[in-house]
Amino acid sequence: MPVPWEALIPFGLLVTMYGVTGTLANVTFRAQNQWKPPRYGLERWDEMMMARDERLTGHFRGQTSDPVIPKRQSTPSAESK
């Protein structure tokens, strides 16, 4: 049975476009996440630590060893008073 060579061009275009779209989506998601892979299967503890990290650094993926919240950022307890 002969190979329909005419069908390989559209097939190649479709495969290329899906590959480009997936790569651009991956780059976009990682760029918004400080070039780190996404987190899956988060538990309550992870969410609390992410909230803490966001208060300390301004981004939920940022981490610091300084346990003091900077003055430029407000805390939830200060907002409720």
From TrEMBL:
The chain crosses the membrane at residues 7-29. The keyword Electron transport applies. Residues 62-81 have a biased composition (Polar residues). It is found in: Mitochondrion inner membrane. GO terms for cellular component: mitochondrial inner membrane. Keywords: Electron transport, Membrane, Mitochondrion, Mitochondrion inner membrane, Respiratory chain, Transmembrane, Transmembrane helix, Transport. It comes from the Eukaryota. Residues 58-81 are annotated as: Disordered. Accessory subunit of the mitochondrial membrane respiratory chain NADH dehydrogenase (Complex I), that is believed not to be involved in catalysis. Complex I functions in the transfer of electrons from NADH to the respiratory chain. The immediate electron acceptor for the enzyme is believed to be ubiquinone. Belongs to the complex I NDUFA1 subunit family. This is NADH dehydrogenase [ubiquinone] 1 alpha subcomplex subunit 1.
